[in-house]
Amino acid sequence: MEFANPGFFWLLISIPLIVGWYIWKEKELQGNLTVATLQGFPVPSNSFLPRMRHSGIVLRSLSLAALIIALARPQSSLSWQNTTTEGIDIIIASDISGSMLAEDFKPNRLQAGKNIAIDFIKARPDDRIGLVVFSGESFTQCPLTIDHDVLINMFNGIQNGMIEDGTAIGMGLATAVNRLKDSEAKSKVVILLTDGSNNAGSIPPLTAAEIAKHFNVRVYTVGVGTNGYAPYPVPSPYGGITYQRMPVQIDEATLGKIASTTGGKYFRATNNEKLKAIYEQIDKMEKARIDVTQYRKKTEVFWPFALAALFFLLLEFVLRNTVFKGALT
Question: Transmembrane helix: is it a keyword of this entry (predicted)?
Answer without folding.
Answer: yes
